[in-house]
Amino acid sequence: xxxxxxxxLVVESPATGVVRRDGEIVGLHHDDGTPPYDVRWSxxxxxxxxxxxxxxxxxxxxxxxxxxxxxxxxxxPAATGPVPEEPxxxxxxxxxxxxxxxxGLSREETARRARISPRYLAYLEEQSADPSxxxxxxLAAALGTTVTALRGAGVDLPPxxxxxxxxxxxxxxxxx
Length: 176
What we know:
The chain is an alpha+beta fold. Helices cover 26% and strands 16% of the residues. The chain contains five helices and seven strands; from the N terminus they run E-E-E-E-E-E-E-H-H-H-H-H. Strands 4-3-2-1-5 form a five-stranded antiparallel beta sheet, covered by helices on one side. A two-stranded antiparallel sheet has the order 6-7. Helix 1 (91-102) crosses helix 3, helix 2 packs across helix 3 and helix 2 (107-114) crosses helix 4 (133-143).
């Protein structure tokens, strides 16, 4: 099984009464397109790491028209909740966007380096998302930083690198 970014992963179930699931492949972990994949499921909009089993198959995206090359996948259900007016990026998304802009990289170039979909990178930067550790590692490598920095470690620390004294003492200070 080999996939490209944007292809659909369809999981059929041999059990009666179980609904088939499909989702867009938004992240690859191997250059040759072999599993595992980061998949955004059409029914929940969640992104998970997937190791497809024998009941799964790939529907390749037709690059010319931007459509899947087979039409037997149902359209994702329409959103029933309120549509947010403004994008609400999470902390990780803001840090990724700031680092990407600081380095003068486009979303497409950053996504190519991290082997994720440009649409998924846009989603991460614009929405409050919780990417997988593998996605964070790929983004950190693509941006030349660390996962710890993307997660914001050290953001709330006070300035300076002071250390506690060996034998601290309290002293009353005068007005001067």
